[in-house]
């Protein structure tokens, strides 16, 4: 009786697990287990299994563009072929933000327009930068940090080939700021965990809007950008003020950390690397939630902070002016004392004098 129940439970569990596997995952698993290439081609029993439609693929999208990748995750025919491909679209001033491919070298071909692209391969390597025009391609070695930006005011398209069916993508900013906040703070020269949390909340998704110079030239306002690619949190890398219920998702907004800036609210860090009160106001203004940004893209907190700075500078200038005039008056008085002129004797009584004759000396006793 018990053994029958256990067998039924095992069968039900197996059926549930099998049902949870998508058809693509099941086909990929079968292809990986196939001993020969002929077996793999037989598993791909539809001619259409060898065609990938980039126009119908799921895109990774940001404020500055999008990309569709064909990898083993969504194109089983790539199994054991060591190849993947991405089609990217960058809008005006769009940037494919700094990232790496941990398992693949990339060769990127520009279809139209031109892009600015740079990379750093590893510690000690020089920074490589190129303007890549239409019809040209640039290579990015496996693991190198690289980016691409459309410097023009018209959309462009690029095609990237990668020599691994599962190349992987690691967005540098999101993953770096996804480390424990006190570790990030220490590695940035004792920045402070609250500031780290504020900056982390501002990091836009990949395919963001690029440099301000390009935006100004093309008349584009940066505005609000999506931030959905932030690192999930757990007890070991939680942000200040996060509870266990928030560990499976990133922090909600930058405003959240501003309201929990007391040192006691950071439960997962063993120490505060600095007194964040000295710079909290400035970074709080910079990391303000995008919903509080004014229509012209200027944060209210930044405006207030600038107004305070201007007022303080004005008071300082007034104090300097007062000190200058007091010093000037004092110097004028000292100069007048040094060059004293005896007043005229006109109109004053003269002191009587006695005229002495040559005949003899004056003798008051006579």
From TrEMBL:
Polar residues bias locations: 234-271
Signal peptide segment: 1-17
Pfam families for this protein: Cupin_1
Domain Cupin type-1: 52-197
Superkingdom: Eukaryota
Transmembrane segments annotated in the record for this chain: 302-326
SUPFAM superfamilies tied to this protein: RmlC-like cupins
Region annotation (Disordered) ranges: 222-271
Stored SMART domains: Cupin_1 (SM00835)
CDD domains for the chain: cupin_OxOx (cd02241)
UniProt xrefs under InterPro entries: Cupin_1 (IPR006045), Germin (IPR001929), Germin_Mn-BS (IPR019780), RmlC-like_jellyroll (IPR014710), RmlC_Cupin_sf (IPR011051)
Cell location: Secreted
Primary location group: secreted
Example GO molecular function: manganese ion binding
One Gene Ontology CC term in the entry: extracellular region
Biased composition (Low complexity): 224-233
Keyword Transmembrane in annotation: yes
Keyword presence, Ribonucleoprotein: no
Keywords: Manganese, Membrane, Metal-binding, Secreted, Signal, Transmembrane, Transmembrane helix
Family to which the UniProt record says this protein belongs: Belongs to the germin family.
PANTHER family documented for this protein: GERMIN-LIKE PROTEIN SUBFAMILY 3 MEMBER 3
Name by which UniProt lists this protein: RmlC-like cupin
């Amino acid at each position: 009786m018990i053994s029958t129940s256990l067998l039924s439970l095992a069968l039900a569990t197996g059926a549930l697990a099998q049902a949870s596997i998508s058809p693509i995952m099941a086909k990929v698993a079968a292809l990986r287990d196939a001993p020969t290439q002929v077996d793999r081609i037989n598993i791909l029993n539809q001619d259409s299994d060898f065609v990938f439609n980039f126009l119908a693929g799921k895109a990774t999208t940001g404020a500055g563009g999008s990309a569709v990748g064909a990898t083993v995750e969504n194109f089983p025919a790539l199994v054991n072929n060591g190849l993947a491909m991405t089609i990217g679209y960058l809008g005006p001033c769009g940037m494919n933000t700094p990232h790496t491919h941990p398992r693949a070298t990339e060769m990127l071909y520009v279809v139209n327009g031109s892009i600015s692209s740079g990379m750093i391969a590893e510690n000690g390597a020089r920074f490589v930068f190129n303007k890549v025009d239409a019809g040209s391609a640039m290579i990015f070695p496996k693991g190198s940090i690289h980016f691409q930006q459309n410097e023009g005011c018209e959309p462009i398209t690029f095609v990237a080939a990668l020599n691994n069916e599962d190349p992987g993508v690691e967005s540098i900013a999101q993953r770096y700021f996804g480390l424990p906040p006190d570790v990030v703070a220490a590695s940035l020269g004792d920045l402070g965990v609250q500031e780290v949390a504020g900056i982390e909340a501002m990091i836009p998704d990949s395919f963001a809007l690029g440099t301000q110079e390009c935006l100004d030239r093309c008349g584009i306002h940066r505005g609000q950008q999506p931030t959905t690619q932030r690192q999930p949190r757990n007890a070991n890398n939680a942000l200040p003020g996060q509870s266990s219920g928030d560990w499976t998702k990133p922090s909600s907004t930058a405003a959240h950390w501003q309201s929990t800036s007391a040192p006691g609210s950071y439960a997962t860090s063993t120490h505060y690397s600095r007194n964040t009160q000295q710079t909290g106001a400035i970074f709080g203004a910079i990391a303000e939630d995008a919903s509080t940004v004014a229509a012209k893209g200027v944060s209210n907190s930044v405006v207030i902070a600038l107004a305070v700075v201007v007022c303080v500078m004005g008071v300082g200038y007034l104090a300097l002016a007062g000190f200058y005039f007091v010093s000037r008056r004092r110097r004028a008085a000292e100069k007048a004392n040094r060059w004293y002129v005896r007043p005229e004797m006109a109109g004053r009584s003269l002191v009587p004098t006695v005229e002495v004759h040559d005949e003899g000396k004056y003798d008051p006793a006579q």
